[in-house]
């Protein structure tokens, strides 16, 4: 099998090596971008008088046919042709004859592969931003329905203070909005045309990268040819942004796993998003949530792999960089798959407000409010803390909650307590009184929801 680069060689590569260094099994997913990039390159070569207009036309027509054939499933890629770039060039030359051999003028696979990956990632970032937007919209809709659904807020997974489900969901809205921002930011640095850098040192041909950039919708052209072919920062940045998306999904999933247990019983998963046990007939397991939590690990692994692959590379291109693709594709596939199943799973959650409210009432979550009540009556906070601590201890021994104590019982520990205490420690009131910006009061959360909707609209 003659290689496109075979001129300098006296001997074929070992078949093990052919197989080892071939990337066609995975980089074939870049075929569309490779072809679009080649078309723009051919048009530019003709415009600049580097090849003849009829030659460019023949090349572009040939590429169009190849694109249609690939999409129609009529193309068998060859491992011997190494990668998607050489596969397509070989198909082209077979189809249109020697003129196909002119396509690679003033170009290297090094700038070509960087171009393909950037074009691919630009699109995938858009798709993922869109999936995040759908998730945020789902969370906002759900939050709107649960502005008054009181539940315990936790620290150390111990009941701490009462909040609402809406407030809890809005914390995740913040996280996913930051994720969208990181992706938009990363997209800006992805949106740079590397074509024209050649193998590493540019070219002597009078190329016109700015026109190619405009044609392919790139916002900028790479400023340095060495960097253009050896930069994969944008891949790492994307993987890091994706890793944080997975952290957020994983934390949420952990809560869904907890909340759907009989011990919490805050939510029930829809049958469509849970599975049974092969042995225990009663089981309804939160497999989807667990699997998303589990899949976060592979994305972190991909990120680590990318960083490690890059760290020792001298400038400019090195074959190590071919290893960027499987990691990148895995990140893209995993994040998309997780978001696609997570959003409808959350949308179909059955919420159990009674159980949430019972848990909020049961865990002395209004103890801070009682201390604050004493402070407002003139007791120094540290003293109020002490008095309420003793009251809680007393309640525990009597099996009572704070609101079940009589005025006399209150006064034994906290002499300034009066009849208005019951309103001050009513759970609903404790939430409603937290009207600060970013707080759980229904009014505050309603405003947070409308601000988030406004940001989404932009
Ligand atoms: N398949 C290669 C990659 O993914 C394309 C670039 C190859 N360049 C080279 N000089 N071997 O990185």
Mean pLDDT: 96
Task: Give a quick account of the main beta sheet: strands, pairing sense, barrel closure.
Answer: 2 strands, antiparallel
Cα(first) to Cα(last) distance is: 55 Å
CATH architectural category of the largest domain: Up-down Bundle
Order of helices and strands: HHHHHHEEHEHEHHEHHEHHHHHHH
Q: Which structural class fits the helix and strand makeup?
A: mainly alpha
Q: Which word captures the global form?
A: elongated
The total domain count is 3
Number of beta-strand segments? 6
The CATH topology of the largest domain comes to Fumarase C, Chain A, domain 2
Radius of gyration: 31 Å
Our estimate of the beta-strand percent is under 5%
Bound molecules: arginine
Q: pLDDT under 50 segments (min length 5)?
A: none
Number of helices: 19
Instruction: Give, in spatial order, the strands making up the sheet with the most strands.
Output: 1-2
Share in helix: 55-70%
CATH superfamily of the largest domain: Fumarase/aspartase (Central domain)
Describe the structure in brief:
By secondary structure, the chain is mainly alpha-helical.
Task: Report on the architecture of this protein.
- The chain is mainly α and 458 residues long.
- It folds into three domains: 6-105, Fumarase/aspartase (N-terminal domain) (Fumarase C, Chain B, domain 1, Orthogonal Bundle), CATH 1.10.275.10; 110-358, Fumarase C, Chain A, domain 2, CATH 1.20.200.10; 361-456, Fumarase/aspartase (C-terminal domain) (Ribonucleotide Reductase Protein R1, domain 1, Orthogonal Bundle), CATH 1.10.40.30.
- It is 62% helix and 5% strand.
- It has a two-stranded antiparallel sheet with strand order 1-2. A two-stranded parallel sheet has the order 3-4. Strands 5-6 form a two-stranded antiparallel ribbon.
- Strand 3, helix 8 (209-215) and strand 4 (220-221) form a beta-alpha-beta unit.
- Helix 6 (109-145) runs antiparallel to helix 7 (165-190), helix 6 runs parallel beside helix 12 (324-347) and helix 6 (109-145) packs antiparallel against helix 19 (442-457).
- The longest helix has 37 residues, at 109-145.
- It is elongated and about 100 Å long.
- The two termini are 55 Å apart.
- The structure holds arginine.
- Arginine (ARG) is lined by residues 23, 27, 83, 109-110, 113, 317, 319, 321-322, 325.
- Arginine binds at residues 23, 27, 83, 109-110, 113, 317, 319, 321-322, 325.
